[in-house]
Amino acid sequence: MSTKVTIYEVALAARVSLATVSRVLNNPEKVKPDTRERVLKVIKELGYRPNAIARGLASRKTTTVGVLISDITRASVAEMLGGISDIAMKYSYSIKLFSAHENINISDLLNDIVAEQVDGVLLLNDELDLNQMKTIKETFDDNDIPFVLANVIYDDQTVPSVSIDYAKAGYEITKLMIENGRKDIYMLSTVRKYSVNDQKELGYTNAMNEAGLQPKVFRTSGNTSVNRQHFANFFSDKAVDGAIGVRDSIAVSFMNISSETGRRVPEMVAVAGFQNTKYGILSRPTLTSIDIPVYDIGAVAMRLLTKLMNKEKLDSLQVVLPHYIVRRESL
Amino acid sequence: MSTKVTIYEVALAARVSLATVSRVLNNPEKVKPDTRERVLKVIKELGYRPNAIARGLASRKTTTVGVLISDITRASVAEMLGGISDIAMKYSYSIKLFSAHENINISDLLNDIVAEQVDGVLLLNDELDLNQMKTIKETFDDNDIPFVLANVIYDDQTVPSVSIDYAKAGYEITKLMIENGRKDIYMLSTVRKYSVNDQKELGYTNAMNEAGLQPKVFRTSGNTSVNRQHFANFFSDKAVDGAIGVRDSIAVSFMNISSETGRRVPEMVAVAGFQNTKYGILSRPTLTSIDIPVYDIGAVAMRLLTKLMNKEKLDSLQVVLPHYIVRRESL
DNA sequence: CTGAAAGCGCTTACAG
DNA sequence: CTGAAAGCGCTTACAG
User: For B64-164+295-321, CATH number?
Assistant: First the structure.
């Protein structure tokens, strides 16, 4: 376990040139089996590992991908990172995290990412507006860095992305409630703008309009402790027999208030959420929710990125993964 | 927004040598104000950003820290990463993620991390056994890479760490239940071994013994859907008037079964959890829980690491952050 | 205060 | 199949 073995020492010990050592590492087929074995043996004995930084500089490839997120704290982000990490590891890529807080200067951040010489980027930040997305696309295109959107909706066919059809999901769950006989159905969304929530609202609105019902979107901070009063006040004088939360936690929060103010779930109010998290399993009644394959979205996005980085031909840049409704007690 | 501006072009445009450009970036005080301004202006005009890889190779510093985790999916990990990321950004460090799955070869992973030339490492993996911890310490010490344990318990005063006193927390919550008149108190822990859970159990056991009560640890997979049956079967013929879950989700899961099988909470069974997550706010009844400043643990650990990387003198290598009990309906 | 030069540890044409 | 040499884009003693 000696420290700091360089390629030079390996070459010396194996009685070959640096070039040959480098070749057995990068193009083993180009070196004669005999010498290859000899070098490999020395590498193992000395515990040599090529310095990733030097390699990166010389080859112009860092085998590192950048992952741009806004709030790593969100459960969906963490799970997506799980999928990303597993696939990255499989293809020997490292992951570098970049976080974009609310008021950050996007150009600065992008320049940082470019300066870090990542080979590709995964974009998980779904709070970006159209201008920011344009800047992102331009910067990465300029610098020839492939990138893919993971669980981010952006209406541009030339941008690789993987997601689910949130509009369809929103439509389906709303339809289900309507068929269930509900009429005063609210969508409980967030104050902050997320591209995926826009889609959910869109699907909801379409289903309501189609049924001749009035779509009504209520926006909450998403903060559970704040929700409480907010919900209670707002709904105290409203007719409501159905509610769809853009997140399970919002749905459960509403469900609790609802029960506590005498509106029984699901008898008087049907409730559903998005994401199929533990919240929906631990709540009482249990929550009907749309299962979103978040881990898979991350994994597939990372896989897509590896192809892009290898300049492989792709049949399609946009991957839409399937979702499904998990029915439980609340609807 | 031109592509690939190098230090050479900046030097040319500013009519100075590369060395000077490098100096205004790294040791601005060593260059005359006039020329400094001139160079800075050119840098801005050209949009120059030093190539982080080249810089890393030349300076032997990458301003990157490695973060070693086992399961990024866990909520506490995600939140800790939030704290880490915020502080890292503040001190201009990048974060590289390394995940250690269950059956991974630790030495290989460590060699990877070393090869990546990170300046320091944060260890969030709390499923490591003593041998693995020894290997880790040796490897990093050998390679002169500082590291700190974040929310990981390891009994070695020479290893920097930040955490809370889990044994004390376990003791306190148990004491509270005892004072509340409970006698048949179970600790609901995990099958998998986590260093922090060992401590919680220790505190619990001490409090029970001290009160002349029999400590009883029940182990669950931590999987909510599996829990259900597991709990129901096990407790069907047991006397139980108190239960402490090592995680909120476990506590809530138990609480639900309890209520459903006719044991009212908190009247017949008191319940408490650890972590003070949303689960405890959204559950009915709401859950008493130990608040653990997970974000802060990450932030403080990262801050400590920056000091270590700068070879600053420290008064103490081990930081213990405060915790407190949030009382709600379940106890 | 500034520049010329060596060097960080690799990869990759180019010859042979 | 293999080696000598240039180069990746920086930093950092060393002179001056």
Answer: 3.40.50.2300
**Correct CATH for A166-291 of 3.40.50.2300, 3.60.150.10, 2.130.10.10, 1.10.10.10:** 3.40.50.2300
pLDDT in tens, A174-186: 999 999 999 999 9
Where do the domains of chain B lie? 7-59, 64-164+295-321, 166-291
**Model confidence pLDDT, tens digit, residues A208-234:** 999 999 999 999 987 777 777 888 888
Output the pLDDT for position A315: 87
Separation in Å: D14 C1' and A111 CA: 34
Question: Given this chain, do its domains B64-164+295-321 and B166-291 carry the same CATH topology?
Answer: yes
Sequence-ordered list of residues with C-beta below 8 angstroms from that of A147, at least 6 positions apart, any chain = A120, A121, A122, A123, A136, A140, A160, A305
C-alpha separations of A59 from A55, A117, B292 in Å: 6, 11, 45
pLDDT class of B119 with cuts at 50, 70, 90: very high
Q: For residue B111, which residues of chain A lie inside 8 Å, CB to CB?
A: 47, 49
Q: In the 30-89 stretch of chain A, whose C-beta falls under 7 Å of nucleic acid strand C? A: 48, 50-51, 54-55, 57-59, 61
Residue A96: HSE in the Cβ half-sphere, 13 Å Cα cutoff? 26
Question: How far is the alpha carbon of B45 from chain A, nearest alpha carbon, in Å?
Answer: 14
Fold adopted by B7-59: 434 Repressor (Amino-terminal Domain) (1.10.260)
